[in-house]
Design brief:
The complex is a heterodimer of chains A (73) and B (632).
Chain A: H1 8-33, H2 47-65
Chain B: H1 7-14, H2 16-24, H3 33-54, H4 60-65, H5 72-81, H6 86-99, H7 112-128, H8 134-142, H9 144-177, H10 181-219, H11 221-230, H12 232-248, H13 274-292, H14 294-301, H15 306-322, H16 324-337, H17 351-356, E1 359-360, E2 363-364, H18 367-375, H19 381-388, H20 402-410, H21 415-450, H22 457-484, H23 488-512, H24 518-541, H25 546-549, H26 557-582, H27 613-630
Antiparallel strand pairs in B: 1-2
Helix pairs in contact in B: 1-6, 3-10, 3-21, 5-10, 5-14, 5-15, 6-16, 7-13, 7-15, 7-27, 8-9, 9-10, 9-21, 9-22, 9-23, 9-24, 10-21, 10-22, 11-12, 11-16, 12-16, 13-23, 13-26, 15-27, 16-20, 21-22, 23-24, 23-26, 24-26
Chain lengths: 73, 632
């Protein structure tokens, strides 16, 4: 957003950071305990781990890049 | 918001009979505690944004126009996101299941040329005139008569659409998760009323950008994992070619061509002709929606300068071209990947078939209707018998459930919560968009000119906030009206298509023809709406009239929409021209800032090529042509 105040990208960063952490964390637990959900396909790809990690990293980047008090684009 | 949603999706998702069927069936998915946490985090974030933005929405310019300080990226994402609601996602995925990539026309030719036209040609007039709304532009150009017609049409349409969105969300949550209808309606309406009432348009825009990210984060995995399972695009195509001839009676190859089989109505599964696609969809419906529907135009008007306002639709068009990857592709993948509980290939059916085969206490309620409905499908005879016997594993699912079914297939705990959150976000921002646009139109184009012309700025902000609360309350009423009044959905959906084509003719002539007069704008818009509504009612009351409206006995309902829009546009266009020639034009000096040829456009500062809107527009055109050639 233009002007002062918290950027929308910061809110998005925080949301992705939280979601990524939760999903990746659960994916690791699922992998370690081999407790895969019934009926879900391709569990061997461990999608929650890498997709959660991806969301987490994007979230960290946006949270830091657009943190309040830092000039936003 | 629903302008470009397939009519089958509207009818399907929210049709009361289908909804009742859904209530009787067991939900498609069960949420884990982690999924609930993911959804709860979203609601917390939405409310945080609303409360944070309250302090920045004190003046009318801030509340209704988001302070006109959005960057091109935010305005562009919000612009495209306003048309990326959950009904659209589910509806077009279902359409892709039925019609193949023909459904992609609604994303490419049905959007891209119009978005570029808005950015490069029309936006300077909207922006330079400093109007706050599309009815506001009509007021400046044609006077109060045209403004009032447009304002009331928009206001009614938006409030009903908001209610429909609310009910659609509740039904989808009931079907997918088994949630109570009233619970979903109350939670979503309270959340929307809070965050839009507090933060105004800025809050709605923020949540649309948030929704855009959530939709990609939640839905992108479905096509990726689906392609992994089919062995890539080549594997998908091979399987569809192999399987679909027997299932649909249409050669599988037709599912992969945008234009090749549109030479006749009968040669393609959608039953449309290329002339309808190009002129009806690509011109009238698309230009009407993307350049005159206030809900989307309002997002671009919030840009911080003219260049950003011009860039916003161009940025949006890149994302629009990519949306078929998360909408059309899952529909196609569903054709070959979805399975019944017994492991056989699942065939989705129309909502009418699902409704006819309602089962309770282990048996189909009306076997005769169910048999008749299933006889029109390509369901295997053995499976039809299973359905009739009320076997618990003989489930029938509609086309519109293709996307949720694919989500359930691939997304486990956490990821499913993210996918469901994306759907909820889509519905809620649909409601929020309609309610915020309603608030602006009500306050600026109805309350201020017709009820109280002398209010203070803070008074109008208060009216805006109250109108949001009232709008949400009326939307709840509309949601329950749709739930209980059979068939009303068709009329609500038709409001958009009835209104938008005459509006496009009126605005285009007003913007590009100095001779267009005040009376011509008013009469052209009003009679165009009446003409368009008459065509709709004609087909509604006499279904065989479809062949006349769409110019072919082979035409299907999708063709009616595009041809009705085309005739309504031409009718209004002719009326505006004729009445203009018979009435006295305004002096050219009064048209400055409103009409092409009478408006000196502001000089824009030179920028590097990578910030130049024309360079990006050329890139969009190249991509657009390439995609149409590749998928010819």
């Amino acid at each position: 957003m233009h002007g002062s105040g918290i950027s929308i990208w910061f809110f998005i960063g925080v949301l992705l950071f939280v979601y990524g952490g939760l999903i990746c964390g659960y994916g690791i637990y699922e992998w370690l305990t081999a407790s895969y959900p019934v009926g879900v396909q391709l569990t061997a790809l461990h999608t929650p781990v890498w997709w959660g990690a991806f969301l987490f990293l994007v979230g960290v980047f946006y949270s830091v890049r657009f943190r309040p008090g830092r000039a936003s684009s | 918001m629903f302008g470009l949603v397939p009519s089958s999706a509207i009818a399907g998702v929210v049709h009361p009979a289908a909804a009742l069927v859904a209530f009787a069936a067991s939900p498609l998915a069960r949420l884990s505690p982690l999924d609930i946490v993911v959804i709860a985090v979203y609601f917390a974030m939405v409310l945080w944004i609303g409360f944070y933005l309250k302090g920045r929405s004190n003046t009318s310019e801030e509340f209704f126009m988001a302070g006109r300080e959005m960057t091109a990226w935010i305005a562009g994402l919000s612009f495209v996101s306003a048309n990326l609601g959950s009904l659209e996602l589910m509806g077009w995925a279902g359409s892709a299941y039925q019609y193949g990539i023909l459904a992609t026309h609604w994303y490419w030719i049905g959007a891209i040329p119009a978005m570029l036209f808005l950015g490069l040609v029309m936006m300077p007039f909207y922006y330079v005139s400093k109007t706050h709304s599309v009815p506001g532009y009509l007021d400046l150009r044609y006077g109060g008569g045209a403004r009032t017609v447009a304002a009331f049409s928009f206001a009614i349409e938006m409030i009903l659409m908001s209610g429909v969105n609310m009910f659609a969300m509740a039904v989808v949550m009931k079907v997918v998760l088994g949630w109570d209808i009233t619970f979903s309606i109350l939670v979503s309406s309270v959340a929307v009323a809070l965050y839009v009432g507090l933060g105004g348009l800025r809050s709605a825009i923020f949540n649309e950008v948030l929704q855009f990210v959530l939709i990609w984060g939640g839905a992108l995995l479905v096509p990726i994992l689906g392609l992994v399972q089919t062995g890539g695009a080549a594997g998908l195509k091979k399987q569809i070619m192999t399987n679909m001839q027997s299932m649909t009676g249409v050669h599988g190859d037709s599912y992969f061509h945008l234009w090749r089989d549109t030479g006749t109505f009968a040669a393609n599964p959608m039953g449309v002709h290329w002339t309808g696609i190009v002129f009806g969809l690509g011109f009238v419906i698309s230009f009407g929606y993307w350049t005159t529907d206030f809900l989307v135009v309002q997002r671009v008007l919030a840009a911080h300068n003219l260049r950003a306002a011009r860039m916003a639709p161009i940025i949006g068009s890149f994302f629009k071209m990519a949306v078929p990857f998360i909408v059309i592709l899952p529909g196609l993948l569903g054709l070959v990947l979805l399975q019944n509980p017994d492991g056989s290939r699942r065939q989705l059916v129309g909502e009418d078939v699902v409704a006819a085969c309602t089962a309770s206490r282990g048996a189909v309620d009306d076997p005769a209707s169910c048999t008749a409905a299933m006889s029109k499908t390509t369901l295997p005879a053995a499976y039809q018998q299973k359905v009739l016997s009320g076997a618990p594993d003989a489930e029938l699912h509609s086309y519109n459930q293709a996307l949720p079914l694919m989500m359930v297939r691939y997304l486990g705990p956490g990821l499913l919560g993210l996918g469901i959150t994306a759907l909820i976000a889509g519905f809620m921002s649909g409601m929020a968009g309609n309610v915020s646009a309603f608030s602006t139109v009500w306050t600026y184009d109805i309350y201020k000119p017709l009820i109280n012309k002398k209010g203070t700025d803070s008074h109008y902000v208060l009216v805006g906030r109250l109108s949001i609360l009232i709008g949400v309350a009326v939307s709840i009423g509309a949601a329950y009206l749709v739930m209980h009044a059979h068939g009303i959905m068709d009329y609500v959906q038709a409001l958009f298509s009835i209104f938008i084509a005459p509006l496009l003719a009126t605005i285009l002539l007003g913007m590009f023809w100095k001779r267009a007069t005040k009376w011509a704008g008013f009469i052209g818009l009003l009679t165009g709406i009446v003409f368009s509504a008459s065509l709709f009612m004609w087909v509604k009351l006499v279904p065989s009239a479809l062949a006349s409206v769409a110019l072919s006995p082979d035409a299907k309902p999708m063709a009616e929409n595009v041809f009705r829009a085309l005739w309504a546009f031409l009718f209004s266009f002719a009326v505006v021209v004729v009445v203009s020639l018979l009435t006295k034009p305004r002096p050219v000096a009064e048209l400055e800032g409103l009409v092409y040829g009478a408006t000196p456009l502001p000089k824009e500062e030179p920028v590097p090529f990578y910030k130049n809107e024309y360079m990006w527009a050329i890139l969009v055109v190249i991509l657009f042509v390439a995609l149409n050639v590749i998928f010819w």
